[in-house]
Amino acid sequence: MINRFLIVIVAVIVLPLIGAGAAHAQTDTPPPAVFNPAVAFDGAGASNPASAADLQRLYNRLEQQDEELRQLRDQLGTLQNEVRVLPPVSNGEFPAPQPAGVVPAGAAESPQVFQLQDRLDAMEKRLDDQAAQHPSVGNSSADGYEVGSDLHFSATWNKGLQFETPNKDFRFHVGGVLQFDLNYFDNPPGIQNPASKGGIGPQPDSLDFRRIRLRMDGTMYEVFDWIVQVDFANMVTPAGTPNAQSPATTSPAFDEMYINWGDIPYIGNLRFGNIKEPMGFEHMMTDSQLPFMERSYLQDFVFGPFNGGYAPGIEMINWRQDLSATWSLGWFGADDDQFGFSLGNDYAGTGRLTWCPYYDEPSGGAYMMHLGVSGSVQSTDEGFVRLRTRGDIRSGPPGILNPIYVDTNYTGTINANSQNIFCGEFACVMGSFSVVAEYAGSTIPNATISGVDHGTPLFQGGYVQCAYLLTGEHEVYDRKRATFERIVPYENAFWVHDANGNCCHGWGAWQILARYNTIDLNDNGITGGELNSFTLGLNWIWNAQARMQFNYDFTDRSAVKTTPQADINSVGTRFSFDF
Q1: 192 Cβ contact partners less than 8 Å away, ≥ 6 residues apart
Q2: pTM for this structure?
Q3: Residue range 505-524: average pLDDT?
């Protein structure tokens, strides 16, 4: 009885497959065309216009046959296992199962099994023959592909909404950044003097959007990358208003807007548009991934004083093949606005060189060291120079509502033809602990104020910061951009009810930070003021795209003009989301 049962099972599984094959053989439909390499390639090995389509059809056919082959192997294995565990019954007793690989006599001689094995062998031979005609089919690294040959886009969420083709030669991303701040200040009355007396002016508590950005970026034809990003949280003063605390209005500002031509021999990447000048470690970081609510004083001082860190220009960017070093050199308009244009003969030549002497590959950079230098030689914007910086925590949205803590304009407008900037960078990651330090200086040759010669003053600043991830993650070092990237928590933060109504939660990533920050704008008779600040931070990183930041800042401000030395205490909280 069991023999008959086994035969029925084999027949049910195998005979429809054999019948389908026989029916296909009896039809009048001609077999699919066999790929002919001589048609697709000329004698020199160059492809004619039909070669890409032929290769794609062959590749798809081989993939389909390989899948069918896998299914047949599975079916054959299932049948062989059945005959091993269901041997013939003798005297009504079930004998012990045979060892693996041993088939009882007479059990494997079923015609259906032989037919299935023959079909499997024939298909393997046909697959081998077709692969031998063109051995590189299916191996994209050896055979390559024609750019733009497959323009079918698929959508996925990869730290934002992404659309891309199978070969990734076309890509499109739509995203943005949203950051909302709650900031509180405790200042002595004297420091709120107007700027004419060396004070910072009013600094009220504030609830505001720090950044509201919309972004589109993508790739075209494999080597052309592009970005368009606009910030809507930007304040300007209407024409004719008497001072910086007068009513202001919002105005969209240009952030990153460029086209990048990549993979150029000897050059690497050629980038042109409104781009970041290559200076500084924290300056090159993405705004949504900053460890503190604001960058150090160096950002306002030299990296992005009045243009948000972006300037119109053209830049070459490249790196070593082993990613141990990067270099970039650019020519920019020395503009002092956020609208992506420069007028006149005011230019800047800026370059950056970085070296990563140690990077632990197995841990993905959990242990690494970074060194860098950068510099810029600039002609001044319309013959004037102004150096100033705002606080570590700011009152009001970006723009003229933010109080200025130190400013060379306290002494007067500096007249000069050029400005030189030089910077040094250091970063180190040791597991969950990291250290970053930077220094920057600026000299202004032949500086004068109201006709008075001030020689070549040197203004300088720097910071040192330490951070530790309590939940075990580590800072992520981008070896091509030579700066830190986003931290992805081991576990996302959540707090929900499960199916049984019980609360369950995830912690996200937690990071503690400390920073010492300083700047000195006093030299050669120019008294812009001096700042020394200490900032403590706590970051709760909910997931790869959302975080909450808490900063406490203590700033010691030197006396300026008739405004005495004073201490500024401030507390800030930020909710940040990018996609």
Answers
A1: 199, 200, 201, 202, 203
A2: 0.74
A3: 97
